[in-house]
């Protein structure tokens, strides 16, 4: 490295963008799918008080959205919970936070797939006895597609 060249700043954002549609798709895949299976679980457990829980959840989601936006502004280089916990507390806290996020991703995908197959079994009653194997097959197929890599459809960027 010459005396006039500068080392890259590891905290600087790279100026890349996913675009609104891809950001929406990624966030919806993690948070938005809950809308499909949560009501069934909620109404079964809470009964007539379900509407109150929905309102309380809405308030929590709004507060969580504000915090997500704050983290994105304070840490434009990314890293989410790992970066925030590592810098605010300790590297071990960042590791634990990252592990919790991974567990969340696995549980969210499994629960979304299971509830999707259960809802599909209402339309196709023959699936009733094989809900779990079909769910495992669906998750395996999506995992295989993920390992192979799926490229976005060609077209103009958003």
From TrEMBL:
InterPro entries per UniProt: APC_superfamily (IPR050367)
Membrane topology per record: Multi-pass membrane protein
A GO CC term assigned to this protein in UniProt: membrane
Principal subcellular localisation of the protein: membrane
Protein name (Swiss-Prot/TrEMBL): APC family permease
Keyword vocabulary terms for this entry: Membrane, Transmembrane, Transmembrane helix
Segments traversing the membrane: 18-38, 50-68, 88-107, 119-142
Subcellular location: Membrane
Origin: domain of life: Bacteria
